[in-house]
Amino acid sequence: MRSSIASAMQRFRPGIAPTLVVLVLLPLMVSLGFWQLSRGHEKQLLVERYAERRAAEPISSAQLNDMADPAFRRVHLRGQLDAAHSILLDNRMRDGKAGVELLQPFQDQASGLWLLLNRGWLPWPDRRTPPAFSTPEQALNLDAWVYVAPGETFQLHADPASAQWPRLLTALHPAALWDELGRSGFAYELRAEAGPGTYETTWPIVAMGPEKHLAYAVQWFAMALALLVLYLYLGWHNKKEKPHGSGHESTQHV
């Protein structure tokens, strides 16, 4: 048994270059597979927490500032929109169509708290003309939920400083807005549910669902296995050929 194993190991000659490639790529592929599994688990927990909190009854805006984790909490609001300080969040796609999301300050009458309310998505097919929207002047009764971004929005360059309104932005910073306006406001965006004064409010919870992360993990593990199998195959079939004699010997006659 030992002799057969030793014989097999002697025949295993993969070469230096393939060995170096496998040593670099195999751990990388396996680690990427486990990273995708981890991300999928995080997304699954996020989706479950969203579903649980969206099923709960709305709370009042006065309770928001005392919450350590307000993400996805439903909030009942009654108040008015500030049409003079509208924000258009750029580069928002829906069903392959370009558009913007309309956000406006909203003051809740019960608590007096200012909130940045996302009224929904608007199409913007022609960038030569600004998106058209209207703002109700009367007090509104509506429900919304707190959106906490998972991280900073990727930007090729920072939004230019501007004093004009409506303001076109690619990333939101509610705290900076409240400082600019001199108001005490909530630190996160609220996304309106379908109701009075809203536009398209079908919000995706995550850009990539947990099932896609699982599929990517399977792909990375499959590529790692294929690389290992190919390495073993080449190692056992890469035997050096033994040199053969020419088979022609010269004869000398005396």
Number of domains: 2
- How many helices? 4
Name the strands of the widest sheet in spatial order: 2-4-5-8-6
How many runs of DSSP E, i.e. beta strands? 8
Q: Outline the biggest β-sheet.
A: 5 strands, mixed, barrel
Q: How large, in whole angstroms, is the Cα Rg?
A: 31 Å
- As residue ranges, the low-confidence spans are 241-254
DSSP strand content: 15-25%
The average pLDDT is 84
Set down the secondary structure blueprint.
Layout lengths: L1 H10 L4 H39 L4 E2 L13 E8 L5 E8 L2 E12 L5 E10 L16 E8 L19 E3 L4 H8 L3 E8 L17 H27 L18
Parallel strand pairs: 1-2, 3-7, 5-8
Antiparallel strand pairs: 2-4, 2-6, 3-4, 4-5, 6-8
Q: Can you describe this structure?
A:
This protein has 254 residues and is α/β, with parallel strands linked by helices. The chain has two domains: 72 residues; 135 residues, no CATH class. Helices cover 33% and strands 23% of the residues. It contains four helices and eight strands; from the N terminus they run ααβββββββαβα. Strands 2-4-5-8-6 form a five-stranded mixed β-barrel. Helix 2 packs antiparallel against helix 4. The longest helix has 39 residues. The radius of gyration is 31 Å and the shape is elongated. The C terminus is likely disordered. It is a multi-pass membrane protein. It is found in: Cell membrane; Membrane. Belongs to the SURF1 family.
